[in-house]
Amino acid sequence: MNFVMKQALGGAGKDMGKMLGGDGGEEKDPEKEAEKVKKEEERQEALRQQEEERKAKYAKMEAERENVRQGIRDKYGIKKREEKEAELAAEAEAAAEGSLTRAKKAVPAGCGDDEEEDAGLMETVMKFLPGPLNNVLDMFNKK
After folding, report:
1. What's the whole-model pTM score?
2. Are 13 and 5 in contact (CB under 8 A)?
3. Which phi and psi (to 5°) does residue 103 adopt?
């Protein structure tokens, strides 16, 4: 097969063989391999160092921004979001401190235990019931 390839390529065997994925007949030198590995390690270390420098730079910039923000908060009496949330949580805890149960939820209108609504409902039902049943319901209402 090599002979056919060489003939098809016009005798350019080694260079074309490399481009086509062959090894080209070269032997690998262990010194060159070690040198490549060392260069790759140095490159990786340089990338890590650059990344650390970049993170430090942005951390410094963010600290400067936070100082400016804090100055504005102090000047205008504004509180941080975290402080507001902490205060609200503390107020909720203080309100529920004496209670053994969880805080009650607000009851929507019309869903409560209003006696007036119940009485109005009973009167409406009693209007439509015949006389003897009215007497039975009166006995239950007296309790």
Report:
1. 0.39
2. yes
3. -65, 140
d(CA 99, CA 107): 19
Tell me, what amino acid is at 29? D
Residue at token pair 């409560």 = 112
Q: Give the CA distances from residue 23 to residues 8, 47, 69, 84, in Å, rounded to whole numbers and listed in that order.
A: 18, 31, 62, 68
Q: Dump strand ranges (E) for the chain.
A: none
- Please write the tens of the pLDDT for every residue from 56-115: 999 999 999 999 999 999 999 988 888 888 888 888 777 766 666 666 666 666 665 555
Phi/psi for 111 (5° steps) reads -110, 0
Q: Look up residue 94 and give its two tokens.
A: 């203080």
Alpha-carbon distance 47 to 36, whole Å?
16
At 28, the amino acid letter reads K
C-beta separation of 78 from 72 below 8 A = yes
Provide the token pair at 107.
Answer: 């009851």
